[in-house]
Design goal:
seven-stranded parallel beta sheet, alpha/beta, Rossmann fold
């Protein structure tokens, strides 16, 4: 069991090459974390993110892995800990959408989303917490969604995966609290990403009408919440869902 406090904390961010994941990597780097940027297929984007992190004066590496595979997640966590020297923070951000009304969803559509968004987070968390327990320290942060709290027509599979994350977070928080490990979720609302840019205009207008702040959020807004939960000052916060939604969920 390790008793020494490292001079610099370390973090692994799944799906860290673009969008919210990239913003999280950069925000962690600016906060002084060494960062492992996981990606599924776009090596160039991941390296661009890592290079931007290095410009902040930290160590950053890129690691390819498909989080739908338990073996790949185990190898990813081990590689991150080896490259960074240890692993203090896991951010389960990797996710996909296949939006259709339930009657048109296929079993493959459902499995692809749940296996990536929920099972991938389970695999990575299980692997990472083994290391964190030995350290008696860790932060696990899962990217859920307001859709996981309230549902949304045409997103049955996505909502199920994000709601499942919240249940997993609350259960894991109870299991690991005595080991110095916190487990929390961040639930973004309408955030400006490539994913939301593809929304039909009518759907976008309808979503904006439900936001008291009257505008969408930025990836940096979500990243700020993640950095807070990853920090030393959030050590007594666990099992929580922090909404970053401009009031959409009120």
């Amino acid at each position: 069991m390790e008793n020494t406090t490292p001079t610099r904390r370390t973090a692994l961010v799944t799906g860290g090459s673009r969008g919210i994941g990239r913003a999280i990597c950069l925000a962690l780097a600016r906060a002084g974390f060494d960062v492992a940027v996981n990606y599924a297929g776009n090596a160039a984007a991941a390296e661009e993110t890592a290079e931007a992190c290095r410009a902040c004066g930290v160590h950053a590496v890129t690691l390819q892995a498909d989080v739908r595979s338990a073996d790949a997640c185990q190898q990813l966590v081990e590689a991150a800990a080896k490259e960074l020297g240890r692993l203090d923070v896991l951010v389960n951000n990797a996710g996909v959408t296949i939006d259709k009304l339930m009657m048109r969803l296929t079993e493959q559509d459902f499995d692809t989303v749940v296996n990536t968004n929920l099972k991938g987070a389970f695999f990575c968390t299980k692997a990472a917490t083994r290391l964190m327990m030995r350290q008696r320290y860790g932060r696990v942060i899962c990217l859920s969604s307001v859709v996981g709290l309230h549902g949304n027509a045409g997103q049955t599979n996505y909502a199920a995966s994000k709601a499942g994350l919240i249940g997993m977070v609350k259960s894991a928080a109870k299991e690991y609290a005595s080991r110095g490990i916190t487990v929390n979720a961040v639930a973004p609302g309408l955030i400006e990403t490539d994913m939301t840019a593809a929304m039909p205009e009518a759907a976008r207008t309808a979503a904006l009408s439900t936001i008291p702040a009257q505008h969408s959020g930025r990836p940096e807004d979500v990243a700020a919440a993640v950095v807070f939960l990853a920090g030393e000052s959030a050590g007594y916060i666990t099992g929580q869902v922090l909404r970053v939604d401009g009031g959409m969920g009120m």
